[in-house]
Design brief:
Elements (H helix, E strand, L loop, with lengths): L3 E5 L1 H5 L8 H12 L3 E4 L5 H7 L9 E3 L4 E4 L4 E5 L4 H13 L5 E6 L2 E7 L5 H8 L7 E4 L2 H4 L3 E9 L1 H11 L5 E7 L6 E7 L4 H11 L4 E6 L5 H5 L3 E5 L4 H6 L2 E3 L6 H10 L5
Parallel strand pairs: 1-2, 1-12, 7-8, 12-13, 13-14
Antiparallel strand pairs: 3-4, 4-5, 6-7, 6-9, 9-11, 10-11
Length: 277
């Protein structure tokens, strides 16, 4: 008998416009997990950020964060899988960003502790909004110089700004096989996010690993944005929420209710009537 792994994106998919999961969705999903559904999420967020917006949601298997760079046990915070840059790749990223005069958010381990660093004097509106949404986050590490910014074992870079400033970054790193780079407009906002990560840091690769660990035969996924395309491509079934970008809808097996209408939870509830194996 086959076993299915159900994987959802968070922002714009499971989360509503208030960056939260509707209580009805939590009720439905938690009940289905109790009934044996193998369910998790795959997100560009960190575990710290994701844990806040998924409060109340039961996760009985590892979650995928940083767009697939990490797979983590949410209960113990143990890192089960990690994709990293080599030292040469880290130097290349920092050199290019300096040449383009881009000051990113840098995710790294500084003396073994996970940190998010940024240069205070280089904050723009997008970075300030990012910081405002993460007040009290122990990872936040404001610095005053480029030398401090690029300290530690760096594993992820986020550049936030105008599209014309982000596009040159994307053009360089998206064509370099050593990296994976995404560029998309921030949900409900005017600014663009350009994110740089190791080549194997994809939701798809992490899902393949989790599928093997959890001994699942099939994958059903849900998403809304272009960074969900690799996840859709390796899924046996994939569904775009109504508010998804057209590129994702074009390759989806179906379009379900929007994130504001509890689309993922409602689909899972309907599927649950037939059992999850």
């Amino acid at each position: 008998m086959s076993k299915t792994l159900y994987v959802t994106d968070l922002d714009g998919t499971l989360l509503n416009k208030q960056d939260r999961i509707h209580p009805e969705s939590i009720r439905i999903i938690n009940h289905l997990i109790e009934q044996g559904m193998a369910f998790t999420y795959a997100t560009a967020r960190s575990l710290s950020s994701a844990s806040i917006v998924t409060q109340g949601l039961s996760t009985n298997i590892p979650v995928i964060v940083y767009n697939g760079a990490f797979m983590i046990n949410p209960a113990t915070r143990e890192i089960l899988s990690r994709e990293s840059f080599c030292p040469e790749e880290m130097r290349w990223v920092t050199d290019i960003l300096s040449q383009l005069d881009i000051s990113p958010l840098v995710y790294s381990f500084v003396e073994g502790v996970e940190k998010v660093s940024w240069i205070v004097s280089r904050e723009n509106e997008g970075i300030r909004r990012y910081l405002d949404n993460r007040k009290g986050d122990r990872r936040l590490r404001p610095v005053t110089s480029t030398e401090e910014l690029y300290q530690g074992d760096m594993f992820y870079f986020t550049c936030i700004g105008e599209q014309q400033d982000m596009k040159p970054v994307y053009d360089i790193f998206s064509k370099d096989a050593r990296f994976r780079c995404t560029l998309q407009q921030e949900l409900y906002r005017p600014e663009y996010w350009c994110e740089i990560m190791p080549a194997k840091a994809t939701k798809a690769e992490a899902i393949r690993k989790l599928k093997k660990i959890w001994k699942c035969d099939r994958v059903v996924s849900f998403g809304d944005a272009i960074n969900d395309i690799p996840m859709f491509e390796i899924s046996d079934e994939c569904y775009a929420v109504e508010n998804a970008v057209e590129e994702l809808k074009a390759i989806a097996d179906g379009v379900i209710e929007s994130n504001e209408e509890n689309g993922v939870a409602k689909w899972l509830e309907r599927a649950g009537c037939a059992g999850f194996h």
